[in-house]
Every structure is written in C-alpha cells, then in structure tokens.
Amino acid sequence: MGMNYDRIRDWILAEDSFDADRLGKCEAVMSLGNGYMGLRSATEERYLSETRNLLVAGTFNRFDEQEVTELPNAADLTAMELWVDGERLTLERGVTENYRRELNIRTGELRRSFRWTSPKGKTLRFESRRIVSLRRLHDIAMTVTVTAEDDLTLKLRSGISARVSNTGSQHFSEVEKRFYEKKTMQFVERTTQSGIVFVLNAVHRFFKNGAPLALDTDVNIEHRIIFADYMIPLKAGESFTAEKIANVNTTRDLDNEGLTLPELQERSRADLRESEAIGYAGLAEESAQAWREEVWDRTPIEIEGDEKSALDLFAVRFAQYHMRVFVPAHDRRMNIGAKGLSGEGYKGHCFWDTEIFLLPYYMFTAPEIARKLEEYRYLSLPGAHRKAAENGYRGAMFPWESAWLDDGETCPLYAGTDIHTGLPVKVWSGIIEQHISADVAFGVWQYGVISGDTDFMERFGYELIMDTATFWASRLEPGTDGRWHINDVVGPDEYHEHVNDNAFTNYMARWNLQKAMEYADRLKTENPALYARLDQKLDIAANYPLWRDGADRLFLPQPTAEGVLPMDDSFMDGEYVDLSKYKAQDFVGGILKDYSLEQVHHMQVCKQADCLVLFYLLEDQFPPEVKRASWDYYVERTLHDSSLSLSTHSVQACDMGDDAMAYDLFRKSCAIDLGPVMGSSDAGIHAAACGGIWQCAVYGFGGLRMLNGALRIEPRLPANWTKLRYTVCWKGEKFAVTVTHEGTQLEKLTHGREIELTVNGRTVRI
Ligand code: BGC
Fold first, then answer.
1. For the chain, which domains are there?
2. What is the number of the ligand 1 atom nearest to the C-alpha of 492?
3. Under 8 Å between Cβ of 715 and 709
4. 3-state secondary structure of 154
5. pLDDT computed for residue 677 by the predictor
6. Which parts of the chain have pLDDT scores under 50?
7. What is the model's pLDDT at position 418?
8. What is this structure's pTM?
9. Distance 441 CA to ligand 1 centre (A)
10. What is the DSSP letter of 74?
11. What is the pLDDT of residue 678?
C-alpha cells in the first residue's frame, strides 16, 4: 500500500502499489457513502486481511447481553471474483503491473486498474469503478472491465453475500433469498435483536467491446449467499464489462415507513429497474452532480500558495468529502459515528466529537444538517434521563457514547489489555466521563446563535440547556471549603481517570448552569408562554435556585503562581516523564505498551488536549498569560494519542501567535488519515479529525470564531499560503471571506439582513 498524491490537484487520492496484508487503511480512507450508508472500499477480489463493510446509518443491533449495540455489517454487494482459464484472479499470485486505485473526492467515484498475468501466463487488464449515489441514497453501482491480451476464458462470480460479521459477531438472521427472472437477486435479512429488515437487490448488465451482451446465468443459492456464475470467452484485444447495480433498503428508513415487507421488496425492485435503465455512467454522472451542488458549489474552500499548499487544500476537501459521506443528513434520528460509516471502530457510536469537533463545520456551512445533529440529542433525552436516574441524579445526563435514540449509554465496559494483569481494561468513560452533557448544551447554544434558528431553540434548544443544567446541579458534591465540587470524573484527557475537579468539566458545567439561567431570565420576560411551558416540564421555578447556587459556588481550578491552569486536583503532583520516545513513534498509544493505564494515571502525561479545549471554547474566560503558561506546560506533556488533539493544538497555536507550530500541527492533523503511514485508520477514518482539519483552516488560519454570540474574524495565514477563501453561513445569510497577506475581504453572497462582525478588532457591517 503506497499513498500517492501526484493527482491531488485533480482532487484524486491514489494508491500505487498493492499489499494484501495492509488493506485496512485504503478501505477506510477511500470509503464511499452518502450519509444513509457507508461502503468500505474493499477490493473486488477477496483477501484474508480484508474488512468488507456496508453500514447503514442508525440500524443498530445488539449481538448479546455481553456486548454493546453496534452498526451491523450488512450483506456484501461488492465482491466480484474472476477466474482466468480456471485460475482465480488474486494479486497474491501471478504478476501485477501498473497497479493504481484512485478516489476522486470531487465526484465520489472509486477507480482501480492494473495489468495482471496469471501463473499460467494469461495477461489481462483490469479496471473497476464504483459509486455510492449521493442522488439516490439507496443505490450502489459498480463496473468491472477486463481487456484480454491473450485468448482466454473468464469466469465471473457475483452476488450478495451475508457471510460477513462484525469481527465475529453475527447480527443477522436470513429471511429470504431469491432470483427474479434469473436476473435480479434479492437477499432479505433481519437484525437479531432490533428486528430491522434489510432488503438488498442486485442486477447485472454485460457488454463485450462496448456492445450489450447476453450471458447464460448459472444461479446459485446457498447458506447466507446468493450468486451467479457467468462464462465469457475472450479473444486477445477484446474487452468485457460487467455492471452491477444494487440497492439497499431497511425497515428503519423514513422513506420506507408504512410499507409491509412484501411491498418493500417489490418497491425496491422497481427502484432497481429504474436505476438499471440509467446504467452505471448515468448514475455516476447524477451522483457527481449532487456532489457539486450539495458540497463543492455550496461550501467551496480555496487555498493558494506554494507546492505544499496544494496538499493542504486537498486535505481540507478530503475532510469535507468525508463529512458528507458520514453525515446522516436525511434523518435526524441518527448522528455521526466516531469512525463515520467507514469501519466498525467505535461501533458507529457518537461522542462529544459531534458537538466540539464536527458541528462547527455544519453550523457554518450547512445549518440544516447541524440542526438535525442537535435534534438527535433532543430525541435521545429519554436515555439521558434514564442515565441520570440510574446514577442518582436528575435532569439530562447524556451518554458518553450514543447509538439508537433510546439506547442510553452504549459505552462498552472493557477495551484493551492491561500489560501487567493481562486482563481487559475497564472503560470508565461511560460511567464518569460526564462533560458530554455540557458539550451537548454548548453545541445546542452554538447552533442556535450561529443559525439564528429560534424555532429550534424554542422547540428543543432551551429545554436541552436547562435539562442538562439540572443534571449538573444534582451532580455537585459539597466540599469542606464550602464550595461545590465534581469528584471522580474522566475529563477530556482519558489517561487520567477518577480525578476530582477536572477544569474542563467544572468550567463547562458552570457555563451550562449560567446559560440555563440566562435563558430562563430572558424567556420569562420575552416569551412568557414558552417559559410557562418549559416551567411545567422542567420545573424551572424549583431548579433555578439550584442552578444559581451551583454556578456561584462551583469550585473552579485556579492558575498556579506560574500561571498554569491545573487540569484537575492531582495532575500536577504526578511524576514527570520524558515523553520523547513516545512522541517519536509513528503509532499512538505506545506508552500503554510500557505502562498500565493505572501507572499512567500517576504521570504528567496527557493523551489529548484537555484544558486547551477550554481555552478555545471559552476563550474570554482566561487571561492571555494563563493560556500561554498552560500552553507551554501542557504541550510538553501531551502525546496526541487521540486524533482529536492535534487540531485543537493547531487552532490554539494560531491564537498564541505561534504560526510555524500551528501549521506544523495542522499538517500532522491532516496526516492522521491522509498520511502514508498511520495504521490507525484501519478500523475507520477519524471523523472528529475531519472536523478538526476544517477548524484548523477556518477557525485557526481563517480566524473565524463566534464568541459570546458575536462573530469575529482574525486571520493568520500560514507563510506559504497566499490566499484562503471560505464561506460562512450566519443567521440565515451567507458570505465569503478572502484572506491574503495584504488583508481580509468580505463578500456577501445573499441579500437579506445586514451582518455585523469584527475583523481584526474593527466592527464591520456587510
Ligand atoms: C478520545 C475521545 C473521543 C473518542 C472517539 C477517544 O480516543 O479520547 O475524546 O471522543 O476517542 O473519537
């Protein structure tokens, strides 16, 4: 596997060599999708180390009581095996030349090509193409073309295979499988616990030298698989193309609501006939057009500068590509998994990654999607109330990991291995990583302010902010100092569990309590009817004094004499360790190979940005000298063992005026998935890092930030960039920002209300 960037100016990410033992990275980073489903880019022919994934957003299933719910791996539609004069085409044998696989992020099309000579000496050229349609959310289309260089007979086997699992867990029971007119294949399967029925259809069209070709079909139905075999004799110079048009529907889909299973089976076949008539080229074209309209024309970003800046621009667009591939823009009952829809990692669950790392992109570019992501939180309130009650608290205590709406907490109890005990390590985050509730409230508030969407705030937003405030008020513990404390938590830095008074948690909790009071005060005078409705539901009258007391008396860690904000009440007493060995490693988590998590707890080692996230979310609450001293202190002690860390540091470095470092960290952030080496993408791309890349460009270098309800722009262009242009949606209006080393220009793109903001400290109206 070798990443190749020679065509990034054409929006193409390429792989120019093949390694059957290292398939994961390209399967993930080149994955396709449309928010409804994600399709890992596994090769057509199969290999032992592959992971074939077809994940449909929101279709969670729990394998058994010992496991947490996860996105089930649906039946595979992409495998197409070939035999050449009886020898199976596999790049592990024979001779492969000119290998190339390319993802075009502008069109969402994957292509693959190589020349192969079989062990018996028969040579062919292979080309394949594949899309997941952004226009027709249920459709997958692919083609394989073989051009013979010798006389040979091909055998093609293609079908639908449910012989897949999620790392061993089988989530489906077979329901029905059948051929219609020896042509269309249909496979119906049902998730074992959630009872969601998946209907998958596939049909083939064949061409010889470009002309339609009728082939005898040898139909086969076996255990968990339905497939057909086709024999194709080819003379040297002749080419054969197989097009496979497929679709996936489930009974969880909003557009299938009310249909009986037979109706869904019938309707999905009718849809397939329509797509079949359009054919691969037509489907690919309309999908590419959807990419243009929905993403590239709508939220364009431009970077100009030296040679390196071409890769920078590509990285931002690559992040945008994935942020469309994995966002369920069609359905507010779903959210974004930490690995998007590109792998089984983190089981499709969503985290604080949504609000803190991803939401900014959607809020500022596609507010209607941002709204859905936050409505998901509202619809998940039953699980949050349950979690609070189960833990002896009140209000909304959001799950650290969320899946389906009423699942509540879905964080697994164990993960990884303790190097000393040899036992699995307990994951405390699901129990005590509680800052998520304030993060949700923060996201809701940010969306409400930036979009100006009062309807959202009135129906969902105020309630979410007040309900989470009630949780915090009930969560506080009295200390001997007359203050409230939040003991025994995990802050953002997950290398320290069971800490007291984590700065991020406490400051965010106070912000949450204060915001609830501010809105309650405002609604009482400005919208008494809404206030009365919320009061009835949330008992504001009784809770308000608790919010006030909580906010007033909550202990907030204070800077040391050197100006460093202590991350919690014990970090600074930990042992100082030289981290250079781990910082030099090209993989993450190396420290846990030498020390157990328990030992790391007692060291001054951060997995990821902790206080620094706070400086960036609540930037005006901390004086510059505290930020500076804390920055120097924590940067040295942070390993960036979470993909969320680098982008936060890059944006902070911009704020700190450390331009070279900001750029260096931005590039490292881009390399998490795009870089040639990191193996950590195998289980899926890093969704939050995609949001982080965009934030580095637009929040960091572009200087855009919403602070206390006001918009401000303070750009810091990297030295090797000559221009950065991005678009911003603000309260229903849209404008473009162009930053050069000479200055910053704003251009209003809509003609509604005037926008007021500050640019480099000056108030501007456009
Ligand atoms: C990080 C969390 C993050 C999660 C999912 C963990 O490794 O520590 O902050 O939310 O991954 O991306």
1. 3-258 (2.70.98.40), 380-410+426-476+483-639 (1.50.10.10)
2. 9
3. no
4. strand
5. 62
6. none
7. 87
8. 0.98
9. 19
10. P
11. 58
